[in-house]
Amino acid sequence: MNRGLLYLIGAILYVLFPRDLVPDFLAGWGWLDDAVVIYFLWRYYRRQRLLKEASTRSDQTGQTADDRQSCTADANPYKVLEIEPGASKEEIKAAYRRLAAQYHPDKVQHLGREIRELAETRFKEIQQAYDFLMK
To answer: Which part of the chain is the J domain (predicted)?
Structure first.
C-alpha cells in the first residue's frame, strides 16, 4: 500500500478518534493536537508534490541517462552526498535532505552574492548526485 495513503488514513483516524492527547471537548486546546497532525500531513503532501514537480521538470529538460552520467562522471556521487558506496535508498535520501537543507540557495540568500553562487553550484552537484543514485 502507498505510504502516503497510510499517512492519510492514520491522520484521519487520529483526528476522528474520541481519545486524543488533549480531549476535543476542550474548545481550542482540544483541537490543537488535531491541527498539528493535519499540518504535518499537509507538509508531507506538499513535499511529495514539489519532488514530483522537480522530477517532471528534470524529465522535460531532455537529458538522457548518458547526459546525467556525464554530469557526475568527474565527481563520485557517493562523495558528493558524503555517504558510503552501496548505501540504501533511505540513506541516500537522508543524506540528500541534510545537504540540500544546508546548501540550498534560499537558505544562504542573506549571506551575499558569492556565497549564494557557491551554494547554488554545490546544490546542483548534490541534486545531480542524488538523481544519478536514485535512477
So the answer is: 76-135
What value does the mean pLDDT take over residues 43-62? 70
Q: Note the pLDDT of residue 58.
A: 56
CA 133 vs. chain centroid, Å, equals: 15
Note the residue count of the chain: 135
- Position 29 scores a pLDDT of 65
Between CA 94 and CA 116 the distance in angstroms is 23
3-state helix/strand/coil string of 89-130: HHHHHHHHHHHHHHHCCCCCHHHCHHHHHHHHHHHHHHHHHH
> Residue 55 has what pLDDT?
67
Tell me if the domain spanning 64-135 has CATH number 3.40.50.1820: no
- Return the CA Rg of the chain: 20
Q: Hey, how many other C-beta atoms are within 10 angstroms of the C-beta on 96?
A: 20
Per-residue pLDDT, averaged over 96-119, amounts to: 85
